Amino acid sequence: MSDSNFIILCQPDEEKSCGACCGLYNYVDSSRSSLERRLRSRTKRFQKLVKNPDDVEIYAKETLADEDFAKRYEVIYCCEYLGFLDNEEKKVGCLLHLEQNSGLDLRSCSFYGQELCAGHFCPSHHFIPQSQSQILIKIIDDWYLYGLVLTDIDLVTTYFRLLADRLGGELKPEVFDNVSLKNIVLEYFDWKLTWPFRSQETNRLGKYYFDGSQYMISYIDYAKFGREVSPLNAIILSLSSSFINAGEIEAAEKLIWANIENFIPTYRLNFY
Ligand code: SF4
Ligand code: SF4
What we know:
Layout: H1 32-49, H2 56-66, E1 82-84, E2 92-94, H3 114-119, H4 124-127, H5 130-139, H6 143-150, H7 153-167, H8 179-194, H9 233-238, H10 246-271
Antiparallel strand pairs: 1-2
The structure holds iron/sulfur cluster (2 copies).
């Protein structure tokens, strides 16, 4: 990368990491507990079986035989080499990476191959401003939430734009040394897991998902409920919302506005 300030978001620190582009959230059951079990057993299997490069094949065979690889989106590959990188299970990442294998990069065995895996920087690297990605790194210490939020560009940029519009400037990462402000913003990003209007039927993950070549986009028919398109539509879609009546749309908007309105006076109290 030519920009020396370019932040690589995949493995930012010891508290979390992201594995979204390796298919982490693309299993039909991508719940936290299911992914934890999957990643845990892969790491154990890899540590037990892979003593030299030839053993990777045995690992792959056993993993493919052991797991259910039913996918949410067929076009996104679910890589069998994604596991936990640390004993505390805080970091997800590539079991074939050289740092896991005494300096030997084994990714040539993988579906994408070494070059693609090593050279891939997802759109979040380009479309989430660095100050915003630094805020995410600062406040989120949970691999499951981190990957979901980080890869949802609309969820992140729309929110920080709404806050910046009200405050008259972009938020700086240092602001989030303040625990109250951190908690308000975390309440918002936690909705990625707890949003009450999340569609149960489709179990979607956000408005779209980048699969390497295209975006799949969901849609809310506001006209059906006699409403204009919500000014919060980008966020509402990112939270995988579905509504059964206009009252639910109003309630969803109120929750988001309340979070934003809660942030502003707390910020002013501390920084004006
Ligand atoms: S989705 Fe983006 S941030 Fe996450 S591991 Fe892939 S390239 Fe890195
Ligand atoms: S081989 Fe490539 S796709 Fe698979 S986990 Fe490693 S980096 Fe991800």
